[in-house]
Predict the structure.
Amino acid sequence: MTSSDDGGYVHDPSTFDEGGERTESAGEPTTEPPHPETADREFDWRGWVVVGMIVVAFIVAPVAILLWPPDVGYRFALLSLPLFPAALLALAAVWGTTRP
């Protein structure tokens, strides 16, 4: 079986030079991944949404638990009031750091 029949990566030592850098071979151009500083990573409105969710999860939810009347389902207050903002914070963090 040859490397062209495999369809996956097959190590070929002849594609590397003396310094261990990959060279072009078999019509395969080598492309370096983009440097992280060239990516568009500004703190825009997505960042402010994540900051807002942090405020809700770490300030608003604990205050809501403290102000929750004990006779109106205190168990709900201890389980659900922190859970929903934490889940929304996690979703906002993933959404805010993912670029289309």
Remarks:
- The chain has one domain: 3-97.
- The chain has a mean pLDDT of 79.
